[in-house]
Amino acid sequence: MSWQDRLGAVGVWRGVTDTDPALAAEVERLGYGTVWLGGSPPADLVAAERLLEVTDALVVATGITNIWMTDPAELAAAYHRVQARFPDRLLLGIGSGHREATPQRVRPLQAMGHYLDVLDEHGVPVGARVLSALGPKMLAVSAERAVGTHPYLTVPSQTGQMRADLGDGPLVAPEQTVVLETDEDAARAAARDFLSRYLQLENYTATMHRGGFTGADTALPGSDRLVDSIVVHGSAAAVAAGVRAHLDAGADHVCVQVVPAGSDVAGALGALAGALGLTPRG
């Protein structure tokens, strides 16, 4: 079975420290296919293993394991441990982070190549990993040395371009941030609060510029046009339409990130699952 089938059409992105087994079980019950653990989960993969232990078919993916913060040999050993217990339910999302938070981040393409070399040497299959590829060069690596790409904070037009660049085979699995809030001012305030950090990181603003936004759009606190495009907000039906826009543009899978992170995430995911027509389990 391909990852396109295993992941399901829609999954959930959630910070690793904010995701517990109870939430994972609820995500599976609601009909989502995958939980993506964000926030640079550690190489021991214990967090992923805990979620797999309480679910039956849910896939757990790292979104992403940061190559500057994790040892590839340790990650490989953990992968084999988890894979032996839960075959084909773990996908390694791997990325190079961003320069402002990682001073040692130089020559990310070369560093990614070295990291993947170590995973190769330790027997981690190319088919078990996906790269967080935002630029065209890393996107090419994602097709050659992984199953595809897991981009973050992109819009459907970029999903379409990635599909065109990669062709029909590789996985395209974008993240989509959402705010389930029908009050436009409140929704935009939540979206701007979320985006404020990312608008200070060059790799994300560069990606936004490639997506058609201008420097005026990405200047803090972010234009309405950018905020409304990057963070889909509104009713469950409106948010579901934003998720489907990525699928219509060529995505194999979309993972939704509900913000604010401290809101009723399970309730929001339940409402969105209904609007998406997901089939509940059990």
Automatic annotation (TrEMBL):
GO terms for molecular function: oxidoreductase activity, acting on paired donors, with incorporation or reduction of molecular oxygen. GO terms for cellular component: cytosol. Gene3D superfamilies: Luciferase-like domain (3.20.20.30). Residues 22-102 form the Luciferase-like domain. InterPro entries: Bact_Lucif_Oxidored, Lucif-like_OxRdatse_MSMEG_4141, Luciferase-like_dom, Luciferase-like_sf. This is TIGR03620 family F420-dependent LLM class oxidoreductase. It comes from Quadrisphaera setariae. The lineage of its organism: Bacteria, Bacillati, Actinomycetota, Actinomycetes, Kineosporiales.
